[in-house]
Amino acid sequence: MSATTQEAAPAARVRRTRLADDRRTLDDAIADAVRQKLSVDERGPSRFYFNDVRCECCNGIVKLEGRVPTYRLKRLLLSLIENLDGIQEIDDRVECDRTE
């Protein structure tokens, strides 16, 4: 193996590591933005109904799990986050206690 090839391999690993770290940082920022949006709803007390909703983000895909009391609140939850920057897709696993 030539010296140039040996030097290129560590540099490639460093770039991949930085990209992975950047992706994790972006995913963490997206998840934090979703949590913030659900905890500070300007529309009223509905934020209290989102306490049982958990959020994870991986590669821009936001996974929501948990329960809300009504389907109407589930629709509100999704509308609050659907246009946040960085979200590629929403994996909605939120269940409703009752439909309306």
From TrEMBL:
InterPro entries: BON_dom. Pfam families: BON (PF04972). This is BON domain-containing protein. Residues 27-95 form the BON domain.
